[in-house]
Design brief:
The complex is a heterotrimer of chains A (about 280), B (about 120) and C (about 180). Chain A is mainly α and about 280 residues long. Chain A is built from 12 helices and 7 strands. In chain A, the strands form 3 sheets. In chain A, strands 6-5-7 form a 3-stranded mixed sheet. In chain A, helix 5 packs across helix 8. Chain B is mostly helical and about 120 residues long. Chain B has a single domain, classed as Cytochrome Bc1 Complex, Chain D, domain 2. The longest helix of chain B has 20 residues. In chain B, about 30% of the residues are buried. Chain C is mainly alpha-helical and about 180 residues long. In chain C, about 75% of the residues lie in helices and about 0% in strands. The longest helix of chain C has 24 residues. The radius of gyration of chain C is 25 Å and the shape is flat. Classes of the chains: A mainly alpha (about 280), B mainly alpha (about 120), C mainly alpha (about 180).
Chain lengths: ~280, ~120, ~180
Amino acid sequence: MQTFILSLTTVGLACVLSVPAFASTPEEDKATFQRYFQERFPTVERQDFGNGMYAIDAVARENWEAIEEFPPYEPALSSGEAMWNTPFANGKTYADCFPNGPALVAEYPRWDRERSMVVTLPLAINECLEANGEKPLAYGKGPMADITAYMAYESRGQVRNVEIPADDPKALEAYEKGKEFYFARRGQFNFSCSHCHMGNSGTTLRTEVLSPAMGHTTHWPVYRSKWGEMGTLHRRYKGCNEQVRAKAFPLQGEEYRNLEYFMAFMDSGLEINGPGARK
Amino acid sequence: MLSPHPVRASALALGLGLSTLAAIAADMPQLDFNGDAAAGKAIVNDRGKGNCVACHLIVGAESPGAIGPALVTMQTRYPSKEALARQIWDATVKAPEAAMPPFGKHEILTNQELIDVVEYIWSL
Amino acid sequence: MMIQERFRGLLTALLLVTLPASNAWATHRSEAEKAIQDAKEAHALAESAGVASPETAEMIQKAEGLMPSRQFTKAQETAMNAMKQDLFAFEQSKGGQVDQTKDAAAQEAIGAAEAARKKAASVNGEWRDTAQFIKEAEDLAKSGDFDAAIALADKARRQGEMGYEQALRERGATFPSYVTKQK
C-alpha cells in the first residue's frame, strides 16, 4: 500500500514538474500574442503596429506624420552611412563582416549554435569591430545608434522572421527565458512589461498613450524626443526597468538579448520600419 | 486545447509562494486612520510618491491617466477607510493580476503617508 | 511717459541683480562655496589627527567638480556630507564618546542589507534604489548618525528581501489570464 502511495506521489510530482513540456510552443505563443492585439485594436492594419501608439491615436499620428516629413533621425542616417563606408585602420570594412549588409536587420536577433547564445545586431557589430582591432561602441546611443539606424533604414520592408531551431533545445530555453522575463513582475512598482503593453495598451498613463507590445521591435533605433537623441532598444529596456524601480540589466547582456529574442519572435511577420521617431 | 497542467503548476507555486509571503509578514499593520487630507493630496499628486493621477482620474487633478477606475464616490465603494487602505497597501490581494503597485507592502509610501493618502481619497 | 519707462528699466535692472542674489533662487553659488570651504577645513582638521579618509577627499573634489555646471545644491550636499564625516572622525580621535553598541548595530544592519541585496541580485530581483540606500546608510554611520543609518539600512534590507521573494514568485511567469490561448 505504502509503495503504491509512494509511486502515485512520484508520478504526480513528475507530472507537475514536467509542466513545461506541456506548455505552449513559440508558434502558439505568437498566434496568441498577435491575435490578442488584432482583437484589441481591430481597426489597426497589421503592418501599422510597427508604429506603436501612432497606430492607435489619431491626433498623435498627425503630429508624428508632420515630424516624419523632416525626420529627426536623418543626421543619424548620414553618420551611419559614413561609418559603414569608412574602412577600419586595417583596411577592412563593415561589409567584410556583413557581406549581406547593410540591409540585414531582419536577420537579427538570431540563435548562435556554436556559442549557445542569442546574437543581436549591435553585438555582432561590436564583435566585428573587435575582430578588426577597433574599439567597441557603447550599446545605448551614439555611433551604435547611428550605424544601426542606417542599416535599419536600408532594411525597411524586410519581414521579421526569427528562427528558433527545433533541434537545439538551448534556443528554446533562451526564448522561454525571454518570455518569462517579459511576463514577470519586477521592481518596487511590481510591474511586468505586459501590465502596460498588453492589458493596458491603448490607455493613458497621465497623457501618454501606452503602446501595444506588438510591433515593439521593428522600428529601432529611435530618435526619442525625451532623449533629444537616438537610442537603441536596449537603452529603452534599461529605462523601462528603472521606471518600475527595478535595477536594470547590462545592455546586450544575456537577459536583454533573450528578451529581444522573445519579443522579435512575437513580431514575426511584421516589416522592419526603423529607424523611428518617438516622443 | 488548454492543458490542465498549468493550473496544477500554478496551484503548487501559489502554495509555495503564500508560505514564503507569510515568512516575510508583509501584511498591513494596525493603523490609526486619522490622517491629514491636505498632505495626502500632495502625495497623491507627487510624481515621486503616490502619483495616483498617473493612472486614476481624480476630479480637478492635472492630466489624469485612465488605466485604473476613476476615484469618485469612494465611500460607496469601500465600507471603511481600513478597506480602502488595504487596497492601496496591496491591490494584488484582491486581484492577483492587478497592475496597481503595492504602495504599502513595497514601502513606496511610508505608513504615515498611506494614512494621509487614505484620508484624502476617502473624501473623494 | 518717459519717467515711467525709465522706472520700468530701473526696476528690471534691479530685479535682474537682486533676484539671483537672493535665497528665492535655490542654492546660491556662495552657499555651495562656503560648504566646500567648511568641508576643506574639516578635512584639514581630520588630517591633523591622522584620521582623514580618501573618500571624503574624493567627495570634496566631486563637490568642486559640480560647480562649473552650476549644480550648487548637489555640491553643497556632497560637501556637507564630507564635512560631517571628517568632523565625526576627528571627534572620535580626540576621545569623543561614540556609542559603540549603536555603531556595531549600524554595521550589522548595513551588512544584513548588503547580504539581502546580493541575494535578490542572485535571482535577478534587485530593485533600483537598494544599493543607493546602502551607500547612504554607510555615509550616515560614518557621520555618527547611527539611528538614521540603521533605519535606512533596514529599509534597504527589506527591499532586498522583497525583491528576492518577488523574483521567486514570478518564476514561470506567462501570458496573463485575460489572454485566451491560441492553438
